[in-house]
């Protein structure tokens, strides 16, 4: 198997068929496209998610906390506690651990969550730190739709995207592929602009606002980018989807970096962007917009089971293309080509 997320076929065949016992407390179990599980112990629902950080070096502690909190928030929850596991390469200096924990501490304080435990270990045979976080949260009360899952989208729902495509990927590329980008005449100003996109990695605020305003399904846009997230929502919901290419917002710095490295921003890891399916697009756009966060309608959920990317032509008309799911994120391709 190649680097990156395993394929949907292998995931379904080797992972999702081996999930242990059925428990009545599990409201939302593990399933394709679902980034969080929901448990009910007789009180407020508990939302749980876990994520690794394997491809980023700069700011890894911050990313580790935020990405799992994003998944809990996208499930209609309030993140509460973080379990953080840190695996360091043999020979690492204490300063590496100090930096990672400092980043994680600051991110947790910003989000109002506690680091409640975890594990730290030094091992041979790894080349850079590997981090994994598990976040526990409580369900928000009195939401219009519950539970909010990737599998809840319905035909006719509008697809909305907050911020821009390729946010996390742009920040990682600017930090970890700096030399390759400078060789390709990417300016220092563009690199700074791309790295600054990393300040918008959290979707906790907008997810909570969207949930209260009528989001039916939400998905943090991680590996595979906007195309991958749309595929996962449609596959989990048993629906189709259409995206309008010209409506998908992409920051200029992202366009420049992707052009220089021959990458597709639509298939680049995009933590910080939130995909929302809702029958109430006006209410959701208003609620998120009131936070000062950009939100754009980029497509529709359909009932035909097909995934289409539509390119509208300047003179009128449109070209409809099949939207094949990414076999892996563009960031992993960049590692193969330029590292």
Characterise the protein shown here.
With 339 residues, this protein is α+β, with helices and mostly antiparallel strands. The chain folds into two domains: 17-139, 2-Layer Sandwich (60s Ribosomal Protein L30, Chain: A); 150-338, PurM-like C-terminal domain (Phosphoribosyl-aminoimidazole Synthetase, Chain A, domain 2). The protein contains eleven helices and 13 strands. It has helices spanning 8-15, 60-74, 94-111, 167-176, 178-183, 188-196, 204-213, 225-237, 252-261, 281-289, 330-338, and strands at residues 26-28, 37-39, 46-53, 77-89, 114-123, 130-139, 158-162, 217-220, 240-244, 274-278, 295-302, 307-312, 318-322. The strands form two sheets. Strands 8-10-7-11-9-12-13 form a seven-stranded mixed beta sheet, with helices on both faces. A six-stranded mixed beta sheet has the order 1-2-3-6-4-5, covered by helices on one side. Strand 1 (26-28) and strand 2 form a beta hairpin. Helix 2 runs parallel beside helix 7 (204-213), helix 4 (167-176) packs across helix 6 and helix 7 (204-213) packs antiparallel against helix 10 (281-289). The two termini are 19 Å apart. The model has no long low-confidence stretch (mean pLDDT 93).
